[in-house]
Amino acid sequence: MTDSRYLKRTIIKEQMDSHFLNESRNIRVYLPPGYNEILSYPVVYCQDGEEFFNFGRIATIANRLILDEGAEPFIIVGVEVDTSIRTEEYAPFGQKFDSYMRCFAEEIIPFIEQKYPARQERSSRILAGDSLGGSVSLHLSIRYPQLFTKVISLSGAYYKESQHIYAEENDLSWLDIYMIVGLQETNFETDHGTFDFVELNRETKEMLLDRGATVQYAEKDGRHIWGFWQKELPEALIYFLRA
Question: Measured between alpha carbons, how far is residue 101 from residues 26, 32, 179 in Å?
C-alpha cells in the first residue's frame, strides 16, 4: 500500500505563450515537500509532461525519494505536448523540431527560472524523456551545452537521423546520460516504421562513449510502455539527485 505521505503532492498548472511555436504551452510544476522560496532547487525537465505525471507517477515517486530515500529536494517541470504533432516537435526530421528546441531552451527555461527558485547552473538542470522524448532531450543538451549536461533517457528513439547529428560531435566529455531500454523492444512499431530499440540504444551508447560522455546504461526485461518506465524512474532520478 502506498504511504499516504507520498500522495500529498503540490502540483501547479502553468501556461506559457511561445513566440517560436506561435501558441501557448501547458506546463505542470511539482514542488517538493518542505518547499521554501528562499531556498533553491535542482529541476527535472520532462518531455511528455502529462504522461510523466499521469502514467509515470513521477510526483509520487519524487515524494518517496525525498522523504525516505535520501534524494535532494527537487522541482519537476512537465512540458505537455499534443500527441498528434509530437513527432513533428521531437524528431529532427519534424517540421517543428527547431522551433520546439528554441521554445524549450529560450522560453521555457527562463519562464521557470523567473517564477520559481530553480538553480541556474547547468549541473542543476536534468532533462528527462521517454522514446522520442529521450532523443530530443539529448538533442537539446548537444545544441545547448551551456544549459544542459544531464539526461535521463527511457528507451530513447535514437533513429539514424538523430545518430547522424550526435556523430558530428567530437567532444561530449561534459555529458552525463542515464540510458535504459527494455529487452522486449526489438521490434517496436512506430508511426513511421518498425525499429529495434535495443540495437539503436546500444549503437548510441557506443557513439557517446567514444566521444567521452559518461553513460550509465542498462538493458532490462521490459517493453516500450509506461509500465516499464515507471518502475525504472526511481533509479534514474536518484542517479542524479542523491543528496
Answer: 16, 27, 21
